[in-house]
Every structure is written in structure tokens, then in C-alpha cells.
Amino acid sequence: MFLKGAAACLACNVLPSPAAWAGGLHVGAAAPAATLVTLDGQRISTSELHGQVVILTFWATWCSPCRDELPLLSDYLATHGDAGLRVLGFSLDTREELAEVRRVAQSLRFPVGLMSDSSASGYGRIWRLPVSFTIDRQGLLAEDGWKEKNPVWTRERLDQLVAPLLASG
Amino acid sequence: MNKPFVIKERSAAPPRQQRPGAPLLATALTLTLLSAIPQRSHACASCGCTLSADAAMGYSALPGWRLSVEYDYIDQDELRSGTHAVSGVPPGTELEHETLNQYVTASLSYSPSSSWNLTLLVPYVIRSHSTYGIYDPTQPLPELSRSFSSSLGDIKLIASWQGLLPTHNLGMQLGVKLPTGQYGTAVDFYSGPNAGAPLDASLQPGTGSTDVIVGAYYYAAISQNFDAFINGQFQAAIKHRMDQPGNDYRPGNSTTVSFGLRYEGDPRWVPQLQLNLLHKSPDTGALADVQNTAGNVAYLSPGITAQVSASLNLFVFAQVPVYSNLYGTQLFPRWTASAGATYAF
């Protein structure tokens, strides 16, 4: 399986998750509900996170650009968590890759779970990685990752998009 | 699934000794003799059932079991030669009327992991065929000779490996088709001048051959709402039970390539469009009709898959031939239909 771990793409096409529809995604409208079931079985729903800024990030262990941005998100959370930032990491890996997911998750400061255990159908088919969605303190969608031409997080993009949302609280 | 092929020529030899692939006997004297002797049919055609059912149902990398049932309806009622429909056949060759094929294929699929899949396909073949026998323009058309068979076809066992990519959407297949269906001279005509004579080997429920199957497929989401796929499969007989000189039959190799799009805007209803290409090499052997069993065909196949529940999907497809280049003269369908259901557990 020499191609594993060599997905050096800017954005990786993935097997889409079933039964998902992105038609309800509108920036400024109520963000669709999502629930992360973490690797240790904890359930975290976006509906419980009102009043905080939430980044939903979708990734996989074999997605190189995802692996690049995960530490960045983790570091950003470390410095902005007290300001009300939460990050939920949805891994599209299969259960067979759970050990590798756990290994990656151990280095991250935010909770991670498998997409197959979690639910985020309102965000559409996760057909490309990485992709992220940002929800403001009022529970409104602040950023639609499908509309981003370059969906990979950078420090500049975080400062531009997330910092103002944190400041508004 | 074995496809029937039209064979047109006949020799004057008794039914079980004739050589269907022998040169055409065209003299008037021979025609006269032929018209008096019950003939064995050699009717078969490059027809449909090229639909990619895997793509129709949506490829899956989910471990577990899948149970599927598919029904295919293929009515070969049009005579074609080359790229065109024809109104008749040359004197001295067989004038066929119709071959109606219905296949009910049950399949059981098991994926122990996201990378491996093993599928068993068990077809049940229901086929009726009718022919006027050898065409003699100097005589009125004779009564139709009819045959009917309804029995188990040739079982296939196919292993798929899709572990090359972490996304498990590139797969390779290796399989075998076994000679489990009736073959050779098992089915006879039951009425008409040919009553009691065996049906052509290529119209029997099975081919009597053990075939190797190799294939590959790739599919991916290309946008939020569209998936695309391409797959190909090659099948060749590596051993055939009818292997005695003068009484041998080997089905021609076949290659199918399909590609298409699936619209995933609403996961409950997934419209799809497939283009299915088939290249069929001629059957060979003393009981084969080398001249009339090959061709190249393209079908355009619109269809839709419905998600009844999280584990149950239904599909229905039509296939319309948009191109055909058939060797010799063959009975060919104007359209075909397929429907199926898959239950995952």
C-alpha cells in the first residue's frame, strides 16, 4: 500500500459520507447541528456550545494538507481557548485506521472522533479534504468551507476569520 | 452473465455433428436439402446486460455483508448486421425470430475489511427462442421452431481488493465463472420443424466453460453533488468441457468498460447515467458460429437508485444501444431493462 500516507494533494477527494445534504448551509443562518462522538466515547453537540466559537474540521490521517493544519489549529486553540474557541475534529478514517487516528489525536488539544460514529449530515457530503466550518457565538454559520477556494487553515486565515468572532464575545 | 449470440449459418449435417462455423452452403440444391432436415439452432447475439450493477448501487468500502437481487430483461427482436438493422438474411442462412432473455441474479457479498470483498453471483436464466430455420426465398416461411429453458446459469465468484489507496476507491478484481449451468446440447427445441434438435451451445443456460475474470474500477466524488466512476472487466474461458474434436465449443472473450455519473444531491434518490461498452470476440469450436458471434456495442443507460432505508437500496435502469457493430447477422435488443435491490447487514 505504497500510496498510503502519500496523499500530497492540496485537497483530497474522499469517499463521501452517505445521507448528507449541504443545501441548508448559509453563512449568517443557523448552523446545522453536528455531534462529535470522541474516541473515548464522549458526545459533544454543537447545540451545547452556544456562546462559543466553534470550528468543525474534517480530516484524515492520509491527507497531507490535513496533517499540516491540525497542529496549527491545535496551537491556535491553545492560545485562544480561554477566549471561547472550541475545535471539533471529525476523522474520515475507517475503524481499521483507528490506531493511527489515536496516535494523531494524542498530539492535539481538541477532541477527535470518527466521522462514522458522529453526525454532521447538514454539512453535506464530505467529498473533499480538508474542509472546515466555523460557527459564531450565536450559533450562526460564519464560514462555509465548501465555498473556500483554498480550504487549508493558515495563521493568517485564522486571524482574519476567527479572531474577529472571538473578539465579538 | 452469459450473453446469447446469434449464429446464422447451418450445415446439412445431422444436428449433433454439424459445424455451425463452416462455410455457408448456398447452392439451391443444398437449400432444398436443408429445408427438409430438422435443423439445430445456432442463435445468439451480442446483447445487453452490460450494466454495471456495482456502480448502480454505489461502490462501498464498508465492511459487512450485502445481499442483492437483480432482474434483467433483454428482448432480442431486431436483426442487425454491421452497424445497421436488416430486414432479412441471405438465402441459406438461418432466419431467427426472437430471443427473450430474463436473468434473476442473486449475489452475496462479504467485506471483511474496507480493502477486501468477495462476491458470489448466482444467475437463474429464463430464455425463450424462436427461429424460422434456414431462409429459402423460394418457399413460404415455415412454422417457427421454439425453445425454452429455465434453470441455473453459470455462477461467478469475484474477489476485489481496494487497498491500494487509503480512500479505498480504486479496486482490482479477480474472479472465476464456473460451468454450473446446463450447456452443450442440454436444451432442445420443443416445437416446430426443429423439435427435438438441440439448441445452439451459446443459447444454453451455461457455456460449459471455466472463465477467468479480471477487472478494475475507480470512483470518486467530483463535486458536492456528483460522483464519477469507471470500471472495466475482461472475461476469457480457460477451460471448456466441450473440448472434443468436432464437438467443442468455447465462448469468445469479452471486454466491458463502463463509466458514468451519479447525482448525489439528494441521497434518497440518486439519478445516474452510465455508458457501457462491450467488445465480444467470436465463439470458437465446432459448435460455435465464428462468423456471427462477435461485435462491439455501446449502451447508454439512465437509471435511478432509491434509498429505502439505511440498509436497503433499490435501483432501476434502462439500456438503450447507441452503437453496435455486429459481425454477421445477429438478433439484437432495441432496449433492455434492469432492476435490483441490495440489503446491507
- Helix-residue proportion of chain B: under 10%
Q: Which two chains touch over the largest interface?
A: A-B, 27 and 24 residues
User: Order of strands in the sheet with the most strands of chain A?
Assistant: 6-5-4-8-9
Q: How would you classify the helix and strand content of chain A by structural class?
A: alpha/beta
β content of chain A, as a range?
Answer: 15-25%
Largest sheet of chain A: 5 strands, mixed
The chain-level mean pLDDT of chain A equals 87
Tally of DSSP helical segments of chain B: 2
Number of helices of chain A: 3
Strand content of chain B: over 45%
Round the Cα radius of gyration of chain A to an integer and report it: 15 Å
Structural class assignment of chain B: mainly beta
Q: Which stretches of chain A of 5+ consecutive residues score pLDDT under 50?
A: 1-10
What series of H and E elements makes up the topology of chain B? Answer: HHEEEEEEEEEEEEEEEE
Spatial separation of the terminal alpha carbons of chain A? 48 Å
Multimerization status:
heterodimer
Helix percent band of chain A: 10-25%
State Rg of chain B: 21 Å
Write down how many β-strands of chain A occur, each being a DSSP E stretch of 2 or more residues.
9
Shape of chain B: globular
Strand order of the largest sheet of chain B: 1-3-4-6-7-9-10-13-14-15-16
What does this structure look like?
The complex is a heterodimer of chains A (169) and B (345). Chain A is an alpha/beta fold. Chain A is built from three helices and nine strands, in the order E-E-E-E-H-E-H-E-E-E-E-H. Chain A has helices at residues 64-80, 98-106, 155-167, and strands at residues 12-13, 35-37, 43-45, 53-59, 85-91, 112-114, 128-129, 131-135, 141-144. In chain A, the strands form three sheets. Chain A has a five-stranded mixed beta sheet. In chain A, strands 1-7 form a two-stranded antiparallel ribbon. Residues 1-10 of chain A have low confidence and may be disordered. Chain B has 345 residues and is mainly beta. In chain B, 4% of the residues lie in helices and 53% in strands. Chain B has helices spanning 28-36, 53-57; strands at 64-82, 84-85, 94-111, 116-134, 145-152, 156-161, 170-177, 189-191, 209-221, 226-240, 243-244, 247-248, 254-263, 269-280, 295-307, 312-344. In chain B, the strands form two sheets. Chain B has an eleven-stranded antiparallel β-barrel. In chain B, strand 15 and strand 16 (312-344) form a beta hairpin. The chains are: A alpha/beta (169), B mainly beta (345). The A-B interface holds A 1, 3-5, 7, 12-16, 18-23, 60-62, 94, 96-97, 124-125, 127-128, 146 and B 61, 113-115, 163-169, 220-225, 227, 264-267, 307, 310.
